[in-house]
Specification:
Strand 37 (406-407) and strand 38 (412-413) form a beta hairpin. The chain has two helices and 48 strands. It has five domains: 3-122, Sandwich (Immunoglobulin-like), CATH 2.60.40; 128-203, Immunoglobulins (Immunoglobulin-like, Sandwich), CATH 2.60.40; 212-291, Immunoglobulins (Immunoglobulin-like, Sandwich), CATH 2.60.40.10; 296-374, Immunoglobulin-like; 395-573, Galactose-binding domain-like (Jelly Rolls, Sandwich), CATH 2.60.120. The chain is mainly beta. It is 4% helix and 48% strand. It is rod-shaped, with a radius of gyration of 52 Å.
């Protein structure tokens, strides 16, 4: 080294650190350190000088161990920052020689060592520094190589060689984007010799964000799982054991995301594993138990009339075994599919908002949602019996005066013991012209029986006292013995008279278990004449529920001698708490 240049550099170095020291606040904490964290100095076999920058705001001393007379340091003490000149004489011996310089504070709180090595006359190679810590984001490091001959370099793949300036080589260390701290060694091998020197590089990894994932403890295959947490947008894949899930991108946020469990995922407890970031990092965030397929209800009506029908739509609905409205079990209508199930709300169910629960798999159940149950509208819902209108409705039976004869005085065709079966709401009316011919069409006394909001017309003979030869009073009855329920349960009877001047004055409502033996439920003496208006509804509210297989309306007395009168509406209700 040129002596003048070296001394000039030292002066600048000293002036810099002295200036820094002058600006120090006397209240700064005590410190002592070595500039550039210098740990070693390497000299060739000739006489050499180097510099150690001492950065301090407290008194310190310097000692040399194992140096003998070949190594001197000036100054050997200080009261602040100093540039220490390290001088080595020529090494005329073959081997490398070494010494250790220790710089320590006088209070014993701080101490640093620098190793000085010098080549001898035999072939050898030295590097300085011998170890270095680099930034996680990568940086350049300068290595001084002192050798008696040319050499080769072996280095890690993430270290590349940059520029050279004399015996100084610049190496470029890449950013550590891995998951762990890494260590690499650059080896310098002297040609035509077995001598080597090495530099150890230690580098931490770049800090990265790992998503925090909260998940349910179990889920059914083929269904969606909701994951919550933080930084979920970093997740690129979600695996259920060995099967990759499907991420639903719509509505996804950093705090919430939905993943579909594949239908072929193993039905067992499996690891829930995520892949995240652009480097494909992965982590097992927990375990989840995958269950057999479950029905999923996607749509449920907001409200339904008690006794009416609701439609459940979704997936795997053919797995549903029962549907419950609170504590009342619904009636699943035959013919449902995997995406559509029809259910009838049982009559007698308490109105109000209630939970709809489905059962499946023998022992499993879950809530499909909440629904508001409302009372039926009496004006449009006929015969809300103890069960739904479907799959069957009662038979309508008639009885009159004489059988198969034309009653000239009554002006009508009398029907005796006619058994007409109404199969469902598709019947608009019972067509007597088709049944008996155009010359036998009844002209008076038509009664309308509403079935599921559809009027069904049927002729009821309306004479009061029966004509000569027939003592049986006219009646119309409903036969429930052949319905699915086998009977009807009700606590309310609703009647609307036919608007006519010839009105029913007295009547009875009777029930029977066999169709032959009848018991009066409403006695004639307890009835009032019908008003001459179809806008008036006559209601009989019973004190308790009544169950029967047959019920009939019997005309006992009319207000006119011709005795032709009738009804436009006769309905039975199981009101429960719907009054």
């Amino acid at each position: 080294m040129n002596r003048k240049i070296f001394i000039f550099s030292i002066v600048l170095f000293f002036a810099f650190f002295s200036g820094c020291d002058d600006n120090k606040n006397s209240k700064d904490p005590e410190s002592l350190r070595i500039a550039k964290d210098l740990e070693s100095i390497a000299f060739n076999e000739k006489s050499n000088e180097g510099v150690i920058g001492v950065l301090s705001n407290i008194p310190w001393t310097l000692t040399v161990q194992n140096g003998g007379s070949w190594l001197t340091c000036t100054p050997a003490s200080g009261n602040g920052s100093e540039s220490v000149i390290v001088s080595a004489t020529a090494n005329t011996d073959p081997p490398v020689r070494s010494a250790t310089i220790t710089i320590a504070s006088q209070n014993g709180a701080f101490s640093h060592t620098v190793t000085v090595s010098q080549l001898g006359t035999e072939p050898n190679i030295l590097v300085s520094p011998t170890s270095v810590n680099v930034l996680d984001e990568g940086e350049e490091i300068t290595v001084t190589v002192t050798a008696t001959n040319t050499f080769t370099i072996d280095k890690p793949a993430w270290v590349s060689e940059g520029s050279r300036d004399g015996n100084k080589i610049v190496f470029v260390v890449e950013a550590n984007e891995g998951d762990e701290e890494r260590e690499g060694i650059i080896t310098f091998s002297l040609n035509a010799s077995d001598k080597q020197a090495s530099l150890t590089i230690t580098q931490p990894h770049i800090p990265y964000v790992t998503p925090v994932v909260n998940h349910p403890s179990q889920a059914a295959v083929g269904t969606n799982v909701n994951l919550t947490g933080t930084d979920l947008l970093l997740i690129t894949e979600v695996w259920f054991g060995t099967v990759k899930g499907v991420i639903v991108e719509e509505g996804r946020t950093d705090a919430s995301m939905i993943v579909t469990v594949p239908a072929d995922a193993p039905q067992d407890e499996v690891d829930l594993k995520i892949f995240y970031g652009d480097k494909g990092r992965s982590a097992v965030v927990g375990q989840i138990t995958l269950l057999s397929p479950q029905p999923v209800v996607n749509a449920l009506a907001e409200r339904v009339t008690i006794g009416g029908m609701i439609y459940l739509t979704g997936t795997d609905l053919d797995l549903i075994e029962e549907v419950w409205f609170g504590s009342a079990k619904g009636e699943i209508v035959a013919g449902g599919t995997a995406v559509l199930v029809k259910v009838t709300v049982p009559v007698g169910t308490t109105p109000g908002t209630t939970e709809v629960k489905i059962t499946f798999g023998g022992t499993q159940s879950k809530t499909a949602g909440n629904i508001e149950l409302v009372c039926p509208d009496p004006s449009v819902n006929l015969a809300q019996f103890a069960g739904s209108l479907l799959p069957g409705v009662p038979k309508l039976l008639f009885s009159g005066n004489s059988s198969g004869t034309w009653n000239a005085s009554g002006g009508r065709w009398a029907i005796n013991a006619f058994d007409g079966c109404i199969d469902g709401p598709t019947w608009d009316l019972i067509d007597f012209e088709t049944i008996y011919g155009s010359d036998k069409v009844p002209t008076r006394g038509r009664t309308y029986w509403q079935v599921n909001s559809v009027s069904v017309a049927a002729e009821i003979p309306n004479t009061g006292p029966a004509p000569t030869g027939n003592a049986a009073p006219p009646w119309a009855s409903l036969n429930y013995s052949e319905t699915k329920e086998g009977s009807v349960t009700f606590d309310k009877i609703e009647i609307i008279p036919r608007e006519d001047t010839q009105l029913v004055k007295k009547y009875t409502i009777e029930i029977s278990e066999d169709g032959n033996s009848w018991t009066k439920l409403i006695k004639a003496e307890d009835t009032e004449p019908f008003p001459a208006s179809t806008s008036v509804v006559v209601i009989h509210q019973l004190e308790q529920l009544v169950t029967t297989k047959y019920i009939r309306f019997v005309i006992v007395e009319t207000t006119n001698a011709t005795n032709n009168s009738g009804l436009t509406h006769f309905a039975l209700y199981n009101t429960g708490s719907c009054q």
